[in-house]
Design goal:
Keywords: Coiled coil, Golgi apparatus, Lipid transport, Protein transport, Transport. InterPro entries: Cullin_repeat-like_dom_sf, EXOC2/Sec5_N_dom, Vps51. Component of the Golgi-associated retrograde protein (GARP) complex. The chain is mainly α. Among the domains are: about 235-350, no CATH class; about 365-525; about 550-725, no CATH class. Helices cover about 75% and strands about 0% of the residues. The chain is rod-shaped, with a radius of gyration of 56 Å.
């Protein structure tokens, strides 16, 4: 037999022995550059060193190798010397083994036992498998108890087919029964982990994978996954619906609520979608549709909850800090919701609708809050005002207070259109918010209500009645809003909220409609002011007329004090009106000397009437003359926004009231002379305050004529005496 054949026979025998005893030989793939390895390639190693190292490093490496070679030589010599006897013994042993193996080979060849060895090897493998089956229930139970579910599934999967094939055999029926019972427990454990509330995404993925290996349907698992997570998300919704704030301010409270909302409902929704896509990558369209429908339903219910809670937490607080916190919270929710929307690949406008709705509610509340502030200011001024307040400075003070409130409101609302806010980059939102909510909902609506509030001050009575001076001041405020303030505020809004200057589209209310309301409010206030001041003067005159017996009064020696007081009040009205309004157009005035001459001639005419006596005087003619004068005087005419018109309206009503008081009395000789003195005194001083002297003259003449008509002894004083009394 050749040497090569002998080596082959040895190799075959070694393989058979290794197979019989279960010895496996692993190939060790060594690195070509490992000096100590079996597959070391010196040429490749040198080439690599030359290419990758410098000359100095090569020299160092050479010296290192020389030292190692010398060291190895020394060690080898030592080993040879120390183990010489062992080497001799090993040589003898090897020689003996060669002889023994030669004999064994001869015997094996003689008996031809190769097939038996193979059969024994197969039997050994089978026995190992049988041993694994007998140990399987114990291993499964141990793995389940240790919660090593993946190892338990691995064991079961390895033997599942054998148990199915031979489960009916009496030797295996018990094993199969025990394994099925343990696998049932394993399934329950995996299902429990699947539905556990605090399960992590990794644990959930592991549960689904292992259940699938145990034969669970992917479709049923996907459905159960959707149902379980819907329950979890609905619990998040319930928690958010019952959320209550704890002592923080409104801005901090809304931030805390949105933080909770993002960290629970939105995060869990995103995690549910991502986990589903990860563990069911091959899910059917129907399974995906079920998940999407569930997520959409949850978000559809989440947005109203968020809107309700945010509005509830904010309340009526519209400070700048509160609005900044609200916008920051809404922006965070907007970004998180967009992330979920991208996972769903949905085109729903949840965030836009939510933010638009909240912005509208906040704008409406801002307008309501603004009106409340204005109402409080007006009530405070009404309760504390008196006629000593100087009108001019008061107008600036009131306008400043009213405008300050609207400025604060606008500054707070600008938070919604900040450049750093994500949702405000949407053009449609900015236009809707600026035009519909701020311009129309806050500015136009609140100014209209302000004009109504100003007008309503005229209708107050009793303790709610406002001071006449305050009413006059507010009439000036209304005029200023009509002429410039409303337009200035609108320009500010257009600048801050990106509204084209003078824009009239989108059915926006023209500013002229607002200014017209203020003009009407100013007119109403002026009318009320005139009525209030005139009423005081008429009441003073009526009380003075009622407190005297005009039939038996003594001969007049002076002007009655009430007449002087009336002139003082008219002077005050003139001063206040002059501080707020321009002079107004006047008719040409006569000089003081001509005025005295004119009055003296009229007094002479009255004296000639009195010389006729009551029986000779044509009373019907006098009545007709008085009627002509009365018809020329319009007491309910429009009061123009100028000083002359205001003062003249007060004087007209005052004198008309004086006339009515005279018509209710009967006069004696000295009673009519007192009226004569009072009228002359009024004539001397009223010219300073009126721009229509003829009208005043007519009213004074009518007063005196009415007194003459109702006098039992109509004898008037000489004009010179009257002048002397009045000048004295």
């Amino acid at each position: 037999m050749s040497k090569e054949a002998t080596e082959n026979d040895k190799r075959k025998r070694n393989n058979l022995l290794s197979q019989y005893y279960g010895i496996t030989k692993e190939k060790d793939v060594e690195n070509l550059f490992d000096v100590d390895g079996k597959h070391f390639n010196a040429d490749a190693y040198v080439d690599k060193l030359v290419q990758e190292t410098s000359l100095k490093q090569l020299i160092d490496k050479e010296q290192e190798l020389v030292r190692e070679i010398q060291s190895l030589d020394s060690e080898m010599q030592t080993l040879v010397y120390e183990n010489y006897n062992k080497f001799i013994l090993a040589t003898d042993t090897i020689r003996q083994m060669k002889s023994d193996f030669k004999t064994m080979e001869d015997e094996m060849e003689k008996l031809d036992r190769r097939q038996q060895i193979t059969k024994l090897s197969n039997i050994h493998e089978l026995l190992k498998n049988l041993q694994f089956l007998f140990d399987l229930p114990t291993k499964l139970k141990s793995s389940v108890e240790e919660k090593n579910y993946s190892l338990a599934v691995k064991y079961y999967a390895k033997s599942e087919q054998v148990l199915k094939d031979f489960g009916d055999h009496p030797s295996f029926s018990g094993i199969q029964s025990d394994c099925q019972e343990i696998v049932t427990t394993l399934r329950k454990c995996l299902k429990d982990q699947f539905v556990r509330a605090e399960v992590t995404s990794r644990e959930l993925e592991e549960s689904v994978t292992l259940l699938s290996k145990l034969g669970e349907s992917s479709t049923s698992l996907a459905l159960e996954f959707t149902v379980i997570n819907k329950g979890r998300l609905e619990k998040d919704l319930d928690d958010l619906s019952s959320y209550t704030t704890s002592g923080e301010n409104n801005g901090e409270a809304v931030l805390a609520f949105i933080e909770k909302c993002c960290n629970t409902a939105l995060n869990n929704a995103a995690l549910t979608i991502a986990t589903f896509n990860n563990i069911f990558p091959l899910a059917s369209a129907k399974d995906n549709e079920g998940l999407i429908d569930m997520a959409v339903d949850v978000i559809n219910r989440l947005c109203p909850v968020v809107k309700t809670k945010v509005v509830e937490i904010i309340g009526l607080e519209m400070s700048e800090g509160c609005c900044l916190s609200l916008v920051a919270a809404l922006d965070k929710f907007h970004r998180r919701l967009l992330a979920v929307q991208r996972l769903l690949m949905s085109d729903n406008q949840w965030s836009s609708i939510l933010i638009t709705d909240v912005a509208q509610i906040i704008s409406n509340r801002a307008a309501e809050n603004l009106v409340v502030k204005w109402t409080q200011e007006l009530q405070g001024w009404r309760d504390s005002w008196n006629n000593d307040n100087q009108p001019h400075g008061s107008v600036k003070f009131i306008e400043g207070a009213l405008i300050e409130h609207i400025h604060r409101t606008l500054v707070a609302l600008t938070a919604f259109v900040g450049n750093h806010v994500t949702f405000s980059q949407d053009y449609q939102f900015r236009q809707t918010f600026g035009r519909r909510h701020v311009r129309e909902g806050v500015f136009i609506m609140s100014l209209k209500k302000l004009s109504i509030m100003l007008s309503n001050l005229c209708n107050a009575t009793g303790k709610d009645n406002a001071s006449p001076t305050l009413i006059l001041v507010l009439s000036r405020v209304a005029i200023d809003f009509n002429q410039n303030l409303a337009q200035s505020l609108l320009s500010l809004i257009e600048e801050q909220f990106d509204i084209p200057a003078g824009f009239q589209g989108d059915n926006l209310t023209p500013i002229s409609a607002v200014t017209a309301d203020f003009k009407q409010a100013s007119q109403t206030l002026l009318q009320r002011y005139v009525q209030s001041e005139s009423h005081v003067l008429v009441q003073m005159i009526r009380k003075s007329m009622d407190s005297r017996d005009w039939l038996t009064t003594s001969e007049p020696r002076s002007v009655r004090p009430v007449i002087k007081r009336v002139l003082e009040e008219i002077s005050r009205v003139d001063s206040h009106a002059a501080q707020l309004y321009e002079e107004g157009s006047r008719k040409d005035r006569s000089s003081d000397s001509s005025r005295r001459t004119h009055h003296s001639s009229r007094m002479q005419q009255k004296s000639s009437w009195s010389s006729l006596g009551p029986s000779q005087l044509d009373s019907s003619l006098l009545n007709n003359i008085q009627k002509l004068f009365s018809e020329r005087i319009d007491l309910s005419g429009t009061v123009e926004p100028n000083k002359g018109s205001v003062v003249m309206a007060v004087i007209k009503i005052c004198l008309k009231g004086f006339l009515e008081c005279v018509r209710l009395k009967t006069f004696g000789k000295y009673g009519i002379q007192q009226i004569q003195v009072d009228c002359y005194y009024l004539q001397l001083f009223l010219w300073r305050f009126t721009f229509d002297e003829n009208l005043v003259h007519s009213l004074l003449d009518e007063i005196l004529s009415s007194a003459v008509q109702r006098c039992l002894e109509p004898v008037l004083m000489e004009p010179g005496v009257v002048e002397l009394i009045c000048e004295r």
